[in-house]
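Hi R.,

As promised on Friday, here is the backbone we talked about, encoded as structure tokens. Could you run it through your design pipeline when you get a chance and send me back a sequence?
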């Protein structure tokens, strides 16, 4: 059995062991960015269906043919999306986790309407207001959500965050859960290889796990 499959099974066992009676059954996004397709194919054959990329061109090069042959696969854009890449992104991705500006929302709306596709969108929150990270603040969320749903009619399914690497993520995940509940959203994209067990405690429905499945990137 391929190492990536063994790792995925171990992660699922760990989740079930920690939360045996949980109502949460989070989807694991295997973050396949930078890994060649031969590392990814065993997981596809195993039946895993959610994969994450953070560059549009890499996603197109790797996934175009595979998605035609595997229509049930979901491809998630988890990196920062430039507006000049939206046209291509809308064609290849099923979810975009990094929406944080009206300019981006407008472009997504225009491009998905052209091809009659309804992309599932996460609004990215900059939970600690770090200058080097993308995302809107919690204070901006209500207004931005209305812009997305009322003005541009895009399908916001949830919120996404990247908490600070050097702090306990729990308070940030807790704030995300409250913000999500306030908007009656169903999905929370939070938790990575280092903190996914904590994220589940606060209702994460999508975990973005890379190195713990595929190993460290070179």
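Update: got your reply. Pasting your designed sequence below so it's all in one thread:
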């Amino acid at each position: 059995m391929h190492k990536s499959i063994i790792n995925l099974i171990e992660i699922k066992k760990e989740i079930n062991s920690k939360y045996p009676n949980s109502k949460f059954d989070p989807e694991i996004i295997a973050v396949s960015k930078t890994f060649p397709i031969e590392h990814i194919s065993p997981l596809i054959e195993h039946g895993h269906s959610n994969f994450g990329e953070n560059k549009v061109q890499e996603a197109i090069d790797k996934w175009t043919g595979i998605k035609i042959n595997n229509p049930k696969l979901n491809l998630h854009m988890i990196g920062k999306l430039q507006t000049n890449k939206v046209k291509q992104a809308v064609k290849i991705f099923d979810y975009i986790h990094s929406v944080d500006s009206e300019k981006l929302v407008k472009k997504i709306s225009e491009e998905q309407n052209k091809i009659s596709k309804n992309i599932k969108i996460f609004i990215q929150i900059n939970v600690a207001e770090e200058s080097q990270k993308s995302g809107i603040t919690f204070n901006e969320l209500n207004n931005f959500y209305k812009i997305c749903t009322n003005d541009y009619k895009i399908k916001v399914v949830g919120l996404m965050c990247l908490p600070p690497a050097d702090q306990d993520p729990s308070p940030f995940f807790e704030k995300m859960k409250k913000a999500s509940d306030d908007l009656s959203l169903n999905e929370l994209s939070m938790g990575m290889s280092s903190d996914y067990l904590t994220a589940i405690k606060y209702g994460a429905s999508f975990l973005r796990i890379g190195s713990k499945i595929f190993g460290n990137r070179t």
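One thing I noticed while checking it: The chain has one domain: 3-214.

Thanks again,
M.
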